[in-house]
């Protein structure tokens, strides 16, 4: 006989007994509720695919310029290889959401891995620059398809009310590859210029990724667009056939966070593209000392993604977006004014950069997915990644031209980082205005339902 029944039988009506009954009832109820499972088999396999493909991307990105110089004695060709890769990613990202919603996540993910693998193996035998550029174009398209498919699977398998935490854990794959990929590539190439071996290793890892996709089977167990049992007060599933024209490819509710992230990535693109050259030309750092910048960034990324992202499920995206933007602005200001005189400050800038990326990227990505209608996760992620690639491509080209036309390197780098800090500040202001909890709740019924559940204590977040 439980405590509540005993209290009923004794007919105890004093305030202390009523308080005990209420407390015990809530305690028993909360313990009988199972904590939603985030990391299941499909999540784990998708994470492995993301890890392997991202490692290969980092390996190739960090070595293609030197490969072009070694084989054809052309630095500009190395730049073209990066540009072709980005163009392929931009174009495919635009269509990836529709493909994912129409053809299935696993099919698209596997196709992307194969599109990665075939050019990697071909690059071991091709010596014609135009052929290698074509391979990089196809690999860029593969990146656009794989990244959107990865994110769409996470949006499907992670409980809606734990999306920030799920995105944070999933982002660890990118974090690990950020630190490990370039080092692995440099180790394989070595002093003997073993570029062909690196291409072969990437091809093998891509084949392993494609085989791993076979284990992702959740789509066989549920029909994403015809579920009979929809949870209470949940937004109905939207079929892709209800969308016409361009809206088959783009999700309207994901446009705002995607635009803001485009502005944000335009701000920190200067670090992604020019941090290495800046450190070599202005700070005169060796490769080992420079690698600590990325290691520091990777460590802070890991901490944020593991321990902080889940707070956004309870308090909303602003708990990530505010500190993330502030950290990125501080990183850019340190690089503009003080890093050239202090190696320690250079490393601190790297840590702040890691905080900014790992907080804002999944924060806005989750806003794009959660605020979109159910069943439109693929289109929402495609919109987000398409805009991301546009921002990176445009900012890289503009800042490169800016540096080439600057009076001096010191003047050019300082003003580039200052301009980037200003761009990031614009992203910060827009985030505060557009993505505070009250504004989001008015714009998104799904988010309003989520916050109501949190307020009523119905969710274990």
Which structural traits does this protein have?
globular, Growth Hormone, Chain: A, disordered N terminus, 461 residues, 20 helices, 2 domains, mainly alpha
Short description:
The chain folds into 2 domains: 180 residues, MFS general substrate transporter like domains (Growth Hormone, Chain: A, Up-down Bundle); 212 residues, Up-down Bundle (Growth Hormone, Chain: A), CATH 1.20.1250.20. It contains 20 helices and no strands.
CATH architecture call of the largest domain: Up-down Bundle
Whole-angstrom Rg:
24 Å
Q: What is the fourth-level CATH superfamily of the largest domain?
A: MFS general substrate transporter like domains
Helical content class? over 70%
How far apart are the first and last residues' alpha carbons, in Å?
31 Å
Shape: globular
The CATH topology name of the largest domain reads: Growth Hormone, Chain: A
Q: Class of the largest domain in CATH?
A: Mainly Alpha
Task: Give the averaged pLDDT, no decimals.
Answer: 82
Sequence of secondary-structure elements: HHHHHHHHHHHHHHHHHHHH
Q: What is the total number of structural domains? A: 2
Largest sheet: none
Individual helix count: 20
In quaternary terms, these chains amount to single chain
Strand tally is 0
The fraction of residues in strands falls at under 5%
Helix and strand content put the structural class at: mainly alpha
| Uncertain runs | 1-33, 224-235
Compile the SSE list and pairings:
Layout: H1 3-10, H2 15-32, H3 41-61, H4 64-72, H5 75-103, H6 105-122, H7 129-157, H8 163-170, H9 172-189, H10 195-213, H11 218-221, H12 255-281, H13 287-308, H14 311-315, H15 318-337, H16 343-370, H17 377-404, H18 409-434, H19 437-443, H20 445-455
């Amino acid at each position: 006989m439980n405590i509540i029944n005993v209290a009923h039988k004794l007919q105890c009506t004093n305030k202390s007994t009523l308080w005990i009954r209420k407390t015990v009832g809530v305690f028993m109820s909360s313990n009988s509720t199972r904590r939603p499972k985030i990391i299941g088999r499909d999540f784990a396999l998708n994470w492995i695919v993301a890890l392997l493909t991202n490692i290969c991307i980092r390996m190739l990105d960090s070595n293609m310029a030197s490969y072009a110089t070694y084989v054809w004695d052309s630095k500009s060709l190395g730049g073209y290889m990066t540009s072709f890769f980005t163009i392929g990613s931009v174009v495919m990202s635009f269509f990836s959401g529709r493909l994912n919603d129409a053809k299935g996540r696993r099919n698209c993910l596997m196709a992307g891995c194969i599109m990665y693998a075939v050019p990697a193996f071909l690059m071991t035998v091709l010596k014609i620059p135009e052929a290698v550029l074509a391979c990089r174009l196809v690999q860029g398209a593969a990146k656009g398809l794989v990244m959107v498919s990865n994110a769409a699977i996470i949006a499907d398998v992670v409980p809606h009310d734990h999306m920030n935490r799920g995105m944070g854990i999933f982002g660890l794959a990118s974090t690990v590859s950020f630190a490990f990929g370039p080092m692995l590539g440099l180790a394989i190439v070595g002093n003997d210029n073993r570029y062909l071996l690196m291409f072969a290793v990437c091809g093998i890892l891509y084949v392993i990724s494609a085989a791993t996709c076979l284990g992702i089977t959740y789509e066989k167990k549920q029909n994403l667009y015809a579920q009979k049992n929809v949870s209470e007060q949940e937004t109905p599933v939207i079929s892709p056939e209800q969308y016409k024209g361009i809206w088959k490819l783009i999700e309207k509710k994901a446009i705002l966070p995607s635009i803001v992230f485009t502005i944000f990535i335009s701000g920190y693109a200067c670090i992604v593209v020019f941090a290495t050259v800046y450190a070599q030309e202005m700070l005169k750092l060796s490769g080992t000392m420079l690698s600590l910048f990325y290691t520091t960034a990777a460590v802070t990324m890991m901490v944020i993604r593991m321990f902080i992202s889940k707070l956004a499920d309870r308090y909303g995206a602003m708990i990530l977006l505010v500190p993330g933007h502030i950290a990125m602005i501080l990183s850019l200001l340190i690089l503009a004014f003080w890093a050239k005189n202090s190696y320690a400050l250079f490393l601190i800038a790297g840590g702040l950069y890691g905080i900014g990326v790992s907080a804002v990227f999944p924060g806005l990505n989750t806003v794009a997915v959660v605020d979109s209608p159910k069943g439109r996760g693929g289109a929402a992620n495609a919109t987000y990644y398409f805009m991301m690639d546009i921002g990176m491509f445009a900012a890289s080209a503009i800042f490169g031209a800016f540096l080439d036309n600057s009076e001096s390197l010191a003047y050019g780098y300082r003003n580039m980082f200052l301009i980037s800090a200003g761009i990031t500040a614009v992203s910060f202001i827009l985030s505060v205005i557009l993505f505070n909890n009250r504004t989001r709740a008015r714009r998104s019924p799904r988010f309003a339902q989520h916050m109501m559940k949190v307020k009523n204590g119905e969710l274990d977040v």
